[in-house]
Amino acid sequence: MTTLHFAEGLRELVGGVEVVLSDIWGVVHNGLESFPEACEALHTYRSRGGTVILITNAPRPADSVQRQLRKLGVADETYDAIVSSGDLTRLYVAEHPGRKMFWLGPERDSSIYRGLDAKAATLEEADYIVCTGLYDDETETAEDYRGMMLKARERKLTLVCANPDIVVERGDRLIYCAGAIAELYRELGGEVIFYGKPHRPIYERAMALAGERQGHQIDRKKVLAIGDSVRTDLTGAREFGIDCLFVTRGIHAEEFEGLDQLDPASVMELFGHPPKALMRELKW
């Protein structure tokens, strides 16, 4: 199928849907401010008996993500739970006690190691790398880390990527994320473990939490994912076997101008397999 369905609102798509797995950055906020209509849509869905699990590639624990959401004006009533790639990365670190870790990322992500027995080390002494992002994502790109990644490959270090996103929206700009460094390392022949979308573990954790709230195991046919990234949200949902509502105002906004006039070949080029529906921005 190559046709595109443009939905007026979330209300058109949630008949029979028990669970919504929603992306955060690009759908609920842009890093600087929240999107009131998106928050209202999720809250309205919850008020009608649905469960909303926010799934995010943020390289921080869920409670840190919640604090950021509150600062941006996203009410706790907007969602039932949060699953972050940071939580899954923390599990990896906890399951490797005594091994020395080189942390690559900005100081704001330090909460990912809170309460863990993580032994910090230099790149020359580390047993593995955890990458939560660039040291300075305002000015740097992955290429600034090529030399570091070549050294890591020589030592055959595993790189654990706590955020598979390549870029993310910050206001009206796109900034590079940990996924950009991880992809560079993989291109250089390094071993990478990815936590977060589009990889399966984050969906399995979200479904488990949704099942706890609904009181029964969730049928994937009754789940709708929402996101703004072809590479992470759409691909992840498709490979996990759930429908996806694609929000076009996010990181792909320029590519999707004039989307309603696309021919089938262009649709396939952009999406591979089209999502269940598209909206410019999430609303009820």
TrEMBL record:
<dbReference type="Pfam" id="PF13344">
    <property type="entry name" value="Hydrolase_6"/>
</dbReference>
<dbReference type="Pfam" id="PF13242">
    <property type="entry name" value="Hydrolase_like"/>
</dbReference>
<dbReference type="InterPro" id="IPR006356">
    <property type="entry name" value="HAD-SF_hydro_IIA_hyp3"/>
</dbReference>
<dbReference type="InterPro" id="IPR036412">
    <property type="entry name" value="HAD-like_sf"/>
</dbReference>
<dbReference type="GO" id="GO:0005737">
    <property type="term" value="C:cytoplasm"/>
</dbReference>
<dbReference type="GO" id="GO:0016791">
    <property type="term" value="F:phosphatase activity"/>
</dbReference>
<dbReference type="InterPro" id="IPR006357">
    <property type="entry name" value="HAD-SF_hydro_IIA"/>
</dbReference>
<keyword id="KW-0378">Hydrolase</keyword>
<dbReference type="InterPro" id="IPR023214">
    <property type="entry name" value="HAD_sf"/>
</dbReference>
<protein>
    <submittedName>
        <fullName>TIGR01459 family HAD-type hydrolase</fullName>
    </submittedName>
</protein>
